[in-house]
């Protein structure tokens, strides 16, 4: 499969995967403060574990109000970049590939650190990222992710196109792209 | 109620329960002929210190909760019915700095089992006790009556476990009415449940006439003598008091036949006899081969359960750490068997007596005027002194107060932490002169007490934010690992609140990274456009 197709598949998997996990791990808040943390208004909190919304509707309301779409897109972009880096690995050399893949992974984890995937992850994420990422809006994290992965893909594709042709693997013919 | 009925009711109460003292003809019953549900107390017992309105926390810090001090814990009783959620509340009152150390006077530190609603006996309702969850079994409630009582405008007065607060006077033309708030020694304001009595001596068309005679708020009652803008004077005021609440660990629940027995330590609880026709079951406790306790439980009086003391005590037994009762629900008897609930490791929290698991603290169960329990308080018996660098334990070490830095008469750095070490943010600051605190979101900490100190807490919070912004500093983050509870998320959420004012370092850093990335992309595009020979 061509690297761009791999990146595209991983982007779809990452985005939809985040959406699914977000739904699976969503917990109905147990207190007013927890409800407010999830983006609900105090008036929408009925009692422990109960809102004026059903669980599915509550998840979607929280997803929208907490701007989780930015996180989902950030994770999708980061995973796509990891896939692209690994797919072009043989042509770019082990060092560049590992660095690029790790960079993509760091971006994905950074996006998760400010996500609402689950209270546990949110707390652990804030613990890992400290106050640095907690003050960064999610839209800016998405922009940064797109810029950094875009730069990475441009750099990797340039290196790949200017690299020397590799010897053919056993049973395959030599190809330059 | 006729005098003879009062006498009969009093005689019945005296015969029915050893703890009952008497009733009082001045009290208004639920309905004509219905006995008063609780005995009138023979003795007044001093309330915990700082029960009155003047003794609320001064400019307190507010902490919504900690992972180990849980908020809105859902509970269900034996019948699967959801009961009001439970909250761990901590209050600190009248603390001060003295000779470079923090002083909390006796009674100044209070833990409150802060329930959102009433706790009902005999229903198998879980009772949070500092992290444990035994079952609330039964209570002893009495009614205290004080005579010739004067409450000055704005003042408050305790009667039993209740506190009467002359809240406001409102004028109309040349008339006025006066509002009385009925509260508890823990700070509840019963207005949310029962409204507030209003009196007037000169607005005869309003307040349905009750305003000149007194008020009846279930068993909190009073006979008004004088109502004016400067004081309210009562011939007498009554207030309920939970004298004792009993809890224990479940040992058995279900239908039991004659001869059925259960062992707890060296004791065996045995069903000695059942008389379904009479509606009674005889239970005995055997220790060392002989019966050391014997009581016939029943018959069930469904009309007066659950709140009536006599009706309830007829069903309950208790002996030296074991207890139980004949459960009326769904049926007391079935096919010759009795519906019993048996508990072991039973313990009691008694009003004004040492807390059994940590006698450095005194217990005060809280009574609701409708005959339910409403949580309990544990307050420090002795003065607490904390030097900088030291910590003071709450009851059973359930939480700790850590004082880190004091500068003159200012508390620069102090925190509260749970027993696992999860800490609040730094609650001190350059303008903080005590460690007064409201922690929690329950009926008291999250609602009633906000009427009294909410404005001061908000002002203090804003002042701290302003001083932090001016100093360019940020509140210290909780350094201990927190668990994945909703409360942990609530604590951690203080992080963005502390860093979101203006451009945080993270925001500036992210903008910088974006700029670098844009430059790098431009560089890459530029390289691609160069002629191949120049590459």
Textual characterization of the structure:
The complex is a heterodimer of chains A (177) and B (535). Chain A is mainly alpha-helical. Chain A has helices at 3-25, 32-37, 55-65, 68-87, 89-92, 94-113, 119-134, 138-162; strands at residues 45-47, 50-51. Chain A has one domain (3-162). Chain A has a two-stranded antiparallel ribbon. In chain A, strand 1 and strand 2 (50-51) form a beta hairpin. In chain A, helix 4 packs antiparallel against helix 6 (94-113), helix 6 (94-113) packs across helix 7 and helix 6 packs antiparallel against helix 8 (138-162). The longest helix of chain A has 25 residues, at 138-162. Chain A is elongated. The model of chain A is unreliable at 122-127 and 171-177 (pLDDT under 50). Chain B is globular, with a radius of gyration of 29 Å. In chain B, strands 7, 8, 13, 14, 15, 20, 21, 22 and 23 form a nine-stranded antiparallel sheet that branches. In chain B, strands 1, 2, 3, 6, 24, 25, 26 and 31 form an eight-stranded mixed sheet that branches. Chain B has a four-stranded antiparallel sheet with strand order 9-10-11-12, with no helix packed on it. The longest helix of chain B has 28 residues, at 444-471. Chain B is of the alpha+beta class. Chain B has helices at residues 3-16, 191-194, 309-313, 444-471, 486-492, 494-499, 505-529, and strands at 61-63, 73-76, 82-92, 96-98, 101-104, 109-115, 125-126, 135-152, 156-159, 162-172, 175-184, 198-199, 214-217, 220-227, 231-256, 261-264, 267-275, 280-287, 290-297, 316-319, 322-326, 333-334, 337-350, 353-354, 361-367, 373-380, 384-386, 391-393, 399-407, 410-418, 437-439. Classes of the chains: A mainly alpha (177), B alpha+beta (535). Chain A binds chain B through residues 27, 29-34, 37, 47-49, 118-120, 122-124, 126-127, 130-137, 140-141, 143-144, 147-148, 150-151, 154-155, 158, 162, and chain B through 64-65, 71-74, 82, 85, 441, 446, 474, 477, 481-490, 492-493, 495-496, 498-500, 504-507, 509-511, 513-514, 517-518, 520-521, 524-525, 527-528, 535.
């Amino acid at each position: 499969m061509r690297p761009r197709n791999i990146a595209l598949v991983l982007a779809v998997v990452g985005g939809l995967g985040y959406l699914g996990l977000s739904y699976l791990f969503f917990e109905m808040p147990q207190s007013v403060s927890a409800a407010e943390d999830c983006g609900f208004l105090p008036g929408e909190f009925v009692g422990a574990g109960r809102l004026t919304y059903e669980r599915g509707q509550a998840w979607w309301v929280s997803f929208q109000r907490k701007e989780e779409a930015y996180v989902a897109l950030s994770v999708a972009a980061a995973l796509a970049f990891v896939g692209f880096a690994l797919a072009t690995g043989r042509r770019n050399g082990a060092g560049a590939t590992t660095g690029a893949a790790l960079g993509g992974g760091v971006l994905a984890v950074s996006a998760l650190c400010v996500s609402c995937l689950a209270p546990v992850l949110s707390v652990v994420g804030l613990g890992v990222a400290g106050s640095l990422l907690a003050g960064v809006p999610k839209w800016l994290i998405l922009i940064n992710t797109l810029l950094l992965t875009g730069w990475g893909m441009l750099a990797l594709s340039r290196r790949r196109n200017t690299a020397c042709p590799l010897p053919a693997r056993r049973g395959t013919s030599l190809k330059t792209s | 109620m006729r005098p003879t009925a009062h006498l009969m009711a009093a005689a019945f109460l005296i015969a029915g329960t050893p703890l009952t003292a008497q009733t009082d003809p001045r009290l208004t019953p639920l309905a004509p002929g219905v006995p008063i549900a609780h005995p009138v107390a023979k003795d007044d017992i001093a309330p915990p210190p700082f029960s009155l309105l003047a003794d609320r926390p001064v400019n307190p810090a507010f902490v919504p909760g900690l992972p180990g001090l849980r908020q809105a814990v859902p509970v269900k009783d034996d019948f699967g019915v959801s009961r009001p959620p439970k909250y761990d509340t901590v209050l600190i009152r009248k603390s001060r700095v003295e000779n470079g150390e923090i002083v909390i006077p006796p009674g100044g530190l209070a833990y409150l089992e802060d329930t959102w609603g009433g706790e009902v006996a005999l229903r198998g309702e879980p009772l949070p006790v500092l992290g444990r969850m035994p079952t609330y079994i039964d209570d002893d409630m009495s009614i205290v009556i004080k005579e010739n009582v004067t409450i000055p405008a704005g003042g408050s007065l305790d009667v039993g476990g209740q506190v009467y607060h002359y809240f406001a006077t409102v004028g109309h033309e040349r008339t006025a009415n006066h509002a009385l708030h009925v509260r508890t020694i823990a700070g509840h304001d019963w207005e949310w449940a029962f409204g507030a009595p209003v009196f007037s001596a000169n607005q005869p068309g309003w307040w349905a006439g009750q305003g000149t005679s007194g008020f009846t708020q279930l068993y909190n009652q009073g006979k008004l003598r004088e109502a004016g803008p400067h004081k309210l004077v009562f011939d007498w005021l009554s207030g309920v008091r939970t004298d004792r609440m009993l809890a224990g660990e479940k040992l058995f629940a279900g239908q039991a036949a004659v001869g059925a027995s259960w062992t707890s330590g060296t004791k065996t609880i045995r069903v000695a006899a059942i008389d379904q026709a009479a509606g009674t079951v005889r239970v005995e406790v055997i220790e060392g081969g002989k019966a050391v306790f014997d009581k016939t439980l029943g018959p069930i009086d469904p009309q007066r359960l659950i709140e009536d003391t006599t009706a309830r005590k007829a069903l309950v037994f208790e002996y030296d750490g074991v207890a139980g009762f004949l459960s009326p629900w769904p049926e007391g008897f079935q096919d010759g068997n009795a519906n019993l609930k048996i508990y072991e490791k039973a313990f009691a929290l008694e009003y004004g007596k040492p807390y059994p698991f940590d006698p450095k603290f005194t217990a005060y169960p809280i009574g609701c005027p409708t005959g339910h329990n409403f949580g309990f308080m544990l307050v420090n018996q002795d003065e607490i002194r904390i030097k900088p660098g030291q910590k003071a334990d709450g009851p059973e070490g359930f939480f700790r107060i850590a004082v880190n830095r004091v500068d003159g008469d200012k508390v620069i750095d102090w925190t509260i932490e749970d027993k696992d070490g999860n800490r609040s943010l730094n609650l001190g600051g350059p303008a903080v002169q005590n460690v007064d605190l409201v922690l929690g979101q329950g009926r008291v900490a999250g609602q009633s007490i906000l009427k009294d100190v909410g404005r001061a807490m908000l002002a203090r919070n804003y002042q701290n934010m302003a001083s932090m912004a001016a100093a360019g500093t940020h509140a210290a983050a909780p350094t201990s690992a927190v668990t994945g509870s909703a409360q942990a998320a609530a604590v951690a959420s203080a992080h963005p609140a502390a860093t979101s004012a203006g451009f945080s370092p993270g925001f500036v850093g992210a903008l910088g990274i974006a700029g670098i990335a844009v430059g790098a992309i431009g560089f890459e595009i530029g390289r691609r456009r160069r002629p191949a020979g120049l590459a």
